[in-house]
UniProtKB/TrEMBL annotation:
It comes from the Bacteria. It holds the Pfam family PadR. The lineage of its organism: Bacteria, Bacillati, Actinomycetota, Actinomycetes, Frankiales. This is PadR family transcriptional regulator. It comes from Pseudofrankia asymbiotica. InterPro entries: Tscrpt_reg_PadR_N (IPR005149), WH-like_DNA-bd_sf (IPR036388), WH_DNA-bd_sf (IPR036390). Residues 7-77 form the Transcription regulator PadR N-terminal domain.
Length: 182
């Protein structure tokens, strides 16, 4: 996710201080990964340097002056362009789980146990997301659904892999597998 574009999008509603942007970001997007203040102000500094935001006012305080930021026309154009670009789908061709399975099979360990532990971990995560979804607002429900659908796909992969484990072990032990490697 582009933090800069997200902050710009939040600024389209009106000028805000960095603290307010962080709070708004965390409420909408940062449930699991809230932004650090340093990240907010570093991003705002970069956006300011690039002409995508401007300082709309300064309020003196006990510490550093509080700057209020506003999005510029260039910032609005940048958000518009960002929104028209589709997100690249996550393609998991390199998977830590797959690597563990292959290593377990190559070293004579129980790959089925690797799958069982992973399945249990996925089910635990799914239960937690389902609880969160039950108590959440519509936005939280949607983000939880997104994560749950991905976890369900992972579970389908685990079941398919479990059914093919013997074939994978045979393929890894075959002399042709060694010849095919660079």
């Amino acid at each position: 996710m582009s933090i800069g574009h997200t902050l710009l999008g939040l600024l389209e509603a009106g000028p805000r201080h960095g603290y307010d942007l962080k709070r708004s970001y965390d409420e909408r997007f940062g449930h699991d990964r809230p932004l650090h203040y340093g990240q907010v102000y570093a991003t705002l500094s970069r956006l300011l340097k690039n002409g995508l935001v401007e300082v709309d006012g300064v309020t003196p305080g006990d510490g550093p002056d509080r700057k209020r930021y506003a999005i510029t026309e260039a910032g609005v154009t940048d958000v518009e362009h960002w929104l028209t670009q589709p997100e690249r789908p996550d393609v998991y061709l390199h998977s830590g789980l797959y690597t563990k399975l292959v290593i377990a099979l190559l070293t004579g360990r129980a790959a089925a146990d690797v799958l069982d532990r992973q399945r249990a971990e996925h089910l635990t995560a799914m239960r937690a997301l389902t609880r969160r979804k039950t108590g959440g607002d519509l936005a939280d429900q949607l983000v939880c659904d997104h994560a749950l659908f991905h976890l369900e796909a992972d579970l389908r992969f685990l079941e398919l892999t479990a059914a093919r484990l013997d074939a994978l072990a045979s393929a890894l032990r075959s002399p042709q597998a060694d010849e095919a490697r660079p």
